[in-house]
Amino acid sequence: MKFLPAVFIPLAIIATGCHPMSDPKHPTLNLHPKQAYEITINIVGAPGSFDSVTGFMGYEIANKECVPKDPISGTRNGPGKSIPIILTHTGDTEYNGIVHLDLLEDDNYYGLGTCQWIMTSIAILPKKHGVEFSSGMFKDEIVSLSVIADYFSKSSYLDKHQRYGIDTGVPTNDLNIVKERPKDFFSIKISAKKVAP
User: Fold this and answer.
1) Lesser CB count within 10 Å: N end or C end of the chain?
2) How would you write the pLDDT of the chain (197 residues) with one tens digit per residue?
């Protein structure tokens, strides 16, 4: 499982028909969310610290029929929304944060019925030398209280010539290389736990 930040970049939408008092690019936050999960991130075996560790919750509209059709393609491309996760550094290599499945209020943005927001996934992005090491979890993995791990090359971390970019780690079908040379890799492990709202 790999994540690309493009998943969380809001998609182009058609503004025509929006209610003047609501904007899908700036949805109303639910002040009393009830579906809360604690996310714990452990970075295991990295050669050193990171310049930053950020996280994002990705949301999209589930019922696309509430969105106008594109006049050219005829498709309904609902907007997306990315919201930062407040992460707390709880140990040398551990971070914690709370994510909410129901953080966005549903609304009738286009006069075609109420658009229903769902959280699809989270992205965790430790950064070193301008490179983001991309990991994350899907909603179903969060709800099932899964523990996932993504693996990254230590040489990528140590390459100071990289000043930008995204490292998505070792592909799932190539994980045998990690078993063969474990000292050449580090991991980002993420676990989820249900918490009271």
Assistant:
1) C
2) 454 443 443 333 333 344 445 889 999 999 999 999 999 999 999 999 999 999 999 999 999 999 999 888 878 888 899 999 999 999 889 999 999 999 999 999 999 999 999 999 999 999 998 899 999 999 999 999 999 999 999 998 998 776 678 998 988 888 889 989 999 999 999 999 999 86
* Alpha carbon distance 39, 85 (integer Å): 10
Residue type, 109: Y
Q: How many residues does the chain have?
A: 197
What does each C-alpha distance from 72 to 24, 33, 68 come to in angstroms?
21, 38, 12
pTM: 0.83
- List all residues 6 or more positions away from 155 whose beta carbon is below 8 Å from its beta carbon: 184
Question: For the purposes of burial, counting CB atoms within 10 Å of the CB of 8, is it exposed (0-12), middle (13-18) or buried (19 or more)?
Answer: buried
Residue type, 197: P
